[in-house]
Amino acid sequence: MSGPSAPAANPATANDKATITPAAAVGVEAKGAVAPSVEQKVLLPEGPQQKVPTPESSKQKVPAPESSKEKVPAPESSRPKISARDVNQDELGCKIIYVPANPDEIEVDIVAVHGLAADPRWTWVYTDRPANGPKREINWVDDSDMLRVSVPKARIMRYGYDSVWYGAGAVKQRLASIANQLLRDLVYTREGCEERPIIFVGHCFGGLVMQKAYLLAKSHDVDYPGIWKSTTGLLFIGTPHQGTGAALHSQGSIYQAIAADNLPTEEGILRTLEGGNETLVDVVREFTRLAGLQPPPVNIYCFYEQKSTIVGKIVRDDSIKEYVVDEASGALHGHASEGLPLDHFNLNKYRGPNDINYIRVQREIVSMVKKSKAVLESRNPGVQKAAAAFVGPAAGPAQAIQRGNSAALSRLPFSKDPIFAPRNNIINRIGEKFAKTLRVVLCGTAGNGKTHVAVEYAHQYSKDFPGARVLWVNARTARQFERSYAVITEDLRIQNRRGNILTAVQRHLHQEANGHWLMVLDGVDDESLLRPTVASGKDKGKKSTSGSLLDYIPESMSGRVLITTRKMSLASSLVNQKSDYVIDVSALSDDDAVFLLYGAVTKDATKKQAAVELARVLNQSPLAVSIAGAYIQAQGPSFTVRNYLDLLSQGTPKLGGESPKSEKEGAELAAERVFNASYKLLKEKDAEAARLLLVIGSFDLQGLRHFFLAKGTDARAQFMQHVSLLVSYGVLKQSDDRTSVSMTALVQRCAQRLVGQSDDPTWAAERALALVTAAFPAAESEEFETCEILYPCASAILEVQPKTTAGKTDLATLLFKLGDYNRDVGRLEAAIQYLKDCVKIREDHPDKNQDLVKQTKKVLDDVRDEQRRTESAPEVAMASGPGESKSSSAAWGRIVGKVQSGGQALSEAMTQEEYQEVGARIRAELEECEKTLGKDHEETLRKADSLAVALHKRDPKGESIAIRQRVLEWCVAKYGPRSLDTIRQTYNLALAYDVQGQYDKAAELYRAAFSGAENLLAPGSPELLRILSSMALVYISQGRTSEAEEAFRVVLAGQQEKLGPDHPETLATRQNAALAAQVLGKFDLVEKDLTHVLRAQERFLGAEHEATLRTACSLALNFRLQGHHAKAEELYKLVLDSQQKVLGSDHPDTLMTRLMLGELLQEMGKLPQARVEYKTAFEGRKKLCGEKHPDTVYVMRRLEAIG
User: Region Disordered: start and end of each range (predicted)?
Assistant: First the structure.
């Protein structure tokens, strides 16, 4: 939500049409209104409203509000038509609005960024319309009596962008695009003064643009030099850090009115402002983390509104009022904030220099300006040098790994409780134990607050170690343990080359270079339940016969492990019988019970006596006391602890007998009594919230994400209201970033027992299954990130045994989606198991659909074929060094298929001996198939295809060409020349010629494959782009560099749009494009691009990934071509050492690096050393490709040239 789109007109112009400028609320300026601007709310950001399609539009019509209670705008006949305005293009970009008289005295740049759908110029303008005087327009960022005077040595700029989202001029925008444009414009504007401090001031959505720009400047500092390092202050005015929180009925009314006027919309950017939106959450969370890590931290201050906003002015309805950005959303956790007595649309406009609201805003800006110089001076320049260390020769893999994971986020399933009883100073006691050991155990009975204590300590640890990671592991069962490790793998972007996530996490955290961390293992109560299921490795579904998951607990001097358990014997074994490192979490003391109930110690003897009595009735259980306290508070001030005791005595449903037989049963009984009482009250107040509670309880998992749970309600705002209610009752916990919810194990058991006692004991689990099934994307959507986020939830809910026909349909659908997804990312064993289960359910389904059964069986057979070929010959990762070729897939019929998540290869690189062994086995199997089935049988051709894959890049006799030709001819005969299978095999044949150095033939076949695929695949398809990329690489080998550069430009644009700028394939293309530019002599540009690619690969793939090492090798070549020989030599040697360790001495990449190092050494006159590298490269190439291969011949000539 931003300021007015244009200055408000004189009230006399009553017949003027309203001008809409939504922002995160609707940025609106209504002519004829006294207020200078009106912005809309939550889902309706500040720019022009999104395009509401007309009947002729291909887009769907915006639906009318569903609830009959929603406000319906006035009939069209009774209100003026809504008109949309276009943004003046001259106002876009960075506009310098004030420069001090002496430019040499400039000490700081101030950049003001407006909100969504706001006019860049008028958003900061207050329009004064005195009754007896001329109208005055006061722009506080430009007025000679306001900001200029406050910061006389500042250069002041405003940044404008077009975010009109409705009307004929509606613009399709993304947060990242706007932030990138801001950074590019700033780089241009700040040329020659890159080290000058920057202070950003943003209204509404503009604050989010600032945050995204800050993150991009940090991760792409080569592209945007000096900006991140020079940013010293950020001032947020009405920025919805947590999304806009208003009810949705106003949005529905406004949309209905826009639709009635047939105005088109572009809604994409509006969704960013929804509470819980994934983009919003990720940006704010990462910004908050990084801003605290910068030494010293950037200065941050937030202002939020204290008055509701008439968001209905957009449709001439003053009755629609909402708080657009209140304190809950406008404040940023961990930073100072302050409310202003203004509504959202006037929060960024001030009457003059004596306006108290302006005084408060300029006070913070002046403070930031004063601190800027000291902040920059105290920032250690060595930090910036270290960040780029791997680019230079002095860097090592450990440094790169640490940087690669610096973007990983800690994610706790529980937020910090507002009330935490001292518990005999237990948090300090834990800290004292950790000063002597790396592992501490909290031991106590069920419900006595072990998890509560662990959460409190985790938050304290995060405060003591900013930037450290907190990793939460649910350790009640093996499946929960493994799912938690899977989440850690995703969060830390751990490269899992060997397929076992348990080993991958343990190995990663063992390395001290990966920074500080705390791991909490919650609920380690029965070691017999913690046998690995191998659910996260290559043999998913198989049972383990030995070992314990506790063997995978990492150890590092940089780490701490905090464990909770109910068993003292297990606690002792976990700390090697050193009982000093076990803390007994005893029952709640009387004083702690009073503190939990009232939030403080009370001197009121009557209140204290009632609290103590309640605690004893509830078996001194902190959890039960907390839930009881929430119940009492929810009932209002007239309801006392004594009333609650009376309620419990009136026969609230109990567990088991009249008295507990053990401490554990006592805790369970207490928890169930208070839970049932709270559930009964919840059901009376909000039945849907009560149902949601039981649905959440059916998941055997913590950290359930909002975005899929919300699909069970009519609107996200309604869902958030349910969550808030459940949290207030103490039965649900919400994560700090408000993106997920969790339930303690004891509360979960209470919920499950309550459902189990109902007439329909499976309804909650089936409802949960339906939600996950609906939310899990289909494979063709390529929404890999969403799939990975939902994967633990989907795995957990598969344990449901649905009774209804609908439930069985949902389970089969989810299994099919999981199978298809695992297939796409290369987890073939898991895919097969999911698909087998799906086949069984669909065959036994009451409403059996034979077509679905056939489809599932066909996919299952395809995956089994892929697995056989993958085991025979793993996929070869794309190579981009000089003379190297592209990759071919091991998967039949999916040769140019989808990329796997994270860019990892399907299996590890094999040695030459291993490849020979595999090739011999496949060759024997092929001969057997030819004898028994015939040469043209489908299985025979599949086996031939497997042999061609095994020979890829290690084919000295060129056999793969004949095999590929044979498979292609079979496809033409079976499917026809224009089928996608035939086109894919044409591409495979091109690869075979390419690898053999027959570039003319390869180029001809690539063109044929591209031409055919272009008619069958959508424009910009990743598969189509991959073919074009391969063709471009051949162009380089043919000397057609300009054509290659143009092809790479097309591929890169498409991949950035479809896959994202940092996707492994996008990065590979950017690297290849840089190499093409290098041939054309654009050395400076190439160094910049390769550095960008290298840093991104380090973050996402790891410092020792094959692709990362190739890029480092390419960068070394660039150094050589620029004459930086010493730099190039050191980097080549660093890469070579890593490749020999990771890939092996005979790997094609290792041999290529040796050749390139030899060329450098020869150029430097170090002939004996060059000769050694050439000889090793020649022997390896001869063994790999044969003596006549062009690459082998090339190395031989280099060797002969130096004698």
Answer: 38-85, 861-891
- Same structural domain, 752 and 803: no
Which regions of 22-153 does DSSP assign to beta strands (E)? 28-29, 82-84, 93-98, 108-113, 125-128, 136-139
Q: Do 755 and 798 have their domain in common?
A: no
pLDDT band at 151 (very low <50, low <70, confident <90, very high): very high
What SS3 class is residue 201?
A: strand
**CATH number for position 197:** 3.40.50.1820
pLDDT at 657: 40
**Final residue in a domain of this structure, among 377, 400, 417:** 377
Extract the tokens encoding 626. Answer: 């907390």
Compute φ and ψ for 118, nearest 5 degrees: -90, 155
Please give the average per-residue pLDDT across 1112-1128, as a whole number: 88
Same-domain status, 104 and 204: yes
Q: What is the pLDDT of residues 521-543, one digit of tens each?
A: 998 988 777 777 644 443 444 44
Name the pairing type of β-strands 299-305 and 231-237. Answer: parallel
Q: Report the largest interatomic distance among the alpha carbons of the chain, rounded to a whole angstrom.
A: 104
Cβ-in-10-Å burial (0-12, 13-18, 19+) of 336 comes to: exposed
Quote the domain boundaries for residue 456.
426-584
Contact 315, 257 (CB under 8 A): yes
* Residue that is written with structure tokens 């069962």 in the block: 477
Quick one: 147 and 110 in the same domain? Answer: yes
pLDDT of residue 441: 94
pLDDT at 824: 75
> Is 784 a domain residue?
yes
The C-alpha atoms of residue 1057 and residue 1066 are separated, in whole angstroms, by 10
Q: What secondary structure letter does DSSP report for 1188?
A: T
Looking at residues 88-106, what average pLDDT do you find?
84
Q: Do 870 and 890 form a contact (C-beta atoms < 8 A)?
A: yes
Q: Name the region of 565 (left: φ>0; alpha: ψ -120 to 50; beta: rest).
A: beta
Closest by alpha carbon to 899, among 1152, 1107, 707, 1047? 1107
535 is written with which tokens? 């659910």
Based on the fold, state whether residues 1028 and 945 are members of the same structural domain.
Answer: yes
Structure tokens belonging to residue 585? 């979490």
Question: Is residue 59 pLDDT above 50, yes or no?
Answer: no
Backbone angles phi, psi at 1090, to 5 degrees: -65, -35
The torsion angle over the Cα atoms of residues 824, 220, 1 and 280, rounded to 10 degrees, is 40
60 versus 365: the higher-pLDDT residue is: 365
CB 364 within 8 A of CB 301: yes
Select the more confidently predicted residue: 458 or 273. Answer: 458
Q: Determine the pLDDT at residue 397.
A: 30
Q: How confident is the model at residue 198 (pLDDT cuts 50, 70, 90)?
A: very high
Over 50: is that where the pLDDT of 20 sits? no
Top pLDDT among 596 and 769 is at 769
Q: Is residue 480 part of a domain?
A: yes
DSSP category for residue 604 = -
Cα separation, 174 vs 170, whole angstroms: 13
Q: Residue 904: is its pLDDT beyond 70? A: no
- 3-class SS of residue 410: coil
Number of domains the chain is built from = 5
Torsion of CA 342, 344, 349, 355, to 10 degrees: 10
Whether residue 693 lies inside any domain: the answer is: yes
Domain of 458, CATH number, reads 3.40.50.300
Q: Exposed, middle or buried by CB within 10 Å (0-12, 13-18, 19+), for 585?
A: buried
- Please tell me the distance from the alpha carbon of residue 990 to that of residue 1000, in angstroms, as a whole number: 10
Do 239 and 207 contact (CB within 8 A), yes or no?
yes
Q: Same structural domain for residues 1031 and 990?
A: yes
> How does pLDDT run across 1018-1067, given as a tens digit for each residue?
777 777 888 888 888 888 777 787 888 888 888 888 877 776 776 777 88
In this structure, the answer to whether residues 739 and 801 fall within a common structural domain is no
- What's the token pair of residue 1097? 């690969």
pLDDT in tens, 826-840: 678 888 999 999 999
Asked if residue 1185 and residue 1125 are part of one domain, the reply reads: yes
Query: Can you read off the two tokens belonging to residue 16?
Result: 């003027």
